Amino acid sequence: MADIKYYDVILKPVITEKSMAGMADKKYTFYVHTDANKSQIKEAVEKMFDGAKVKSISTMNLDGKNRRRGVVTGKTAKRKKAVVQLTEDSKEIEIFSGL
Questions:
Q1: Which residue from 77, 15, 86, 13 is spatially nearest to 56, judged by alpha carbons?
Q2: Is the pTM of the predicted complex or chain greater than 0.90?
Q3: Which residue range(s) make up the domain with 79?
Q4: Would 96 be classed as within a structural domain?
Q5: Is 51:93 a contact under the CB 8 Å cutoff?
Q6: How far apart are CA 26 and CA 90, in angstroms?
Q7: In what order do the strands lie in the sheet with 79-86?
Q8: Which of 40, 86, 79 shows the shortest CA–CA distance to 60?
Q9: Residues paired with 54 in a beta bridge
Q10: 4-41 pLDDT, tens per residue?
Q11: For the chain, how many structural domains are there in total?
């Protein structure tokens, strides 16, 4: 297993209608490193975003989709998605505030 630093855990935020609706309840969705566990995700969120306190985390592994270009077939890369629930007294995450 690779040594994953906290700044390598969160890859990018997920911007969808469902994830935007969850922001009212302080639920934020991120794509994360496939080898990261819940404790590493919690550490990364609390260190990267000032004032954020994590209440719970739900993770899901997403398999790659089958793609075809002519005769050649293949798969896209696997991904891992994390839904982070913040506590009521924590600050909101700023990267989502302008959306």
A1: 86
A2: no
A3: 6-66+75-88
A4: no
A5: no
A6: 9
A7: 10-13, 27-32, 79-86, 54-62
A8: 79
A9: 86
A10: 898 999 999 999 999 999 998 999 999 999 999 999 99
A11: 1
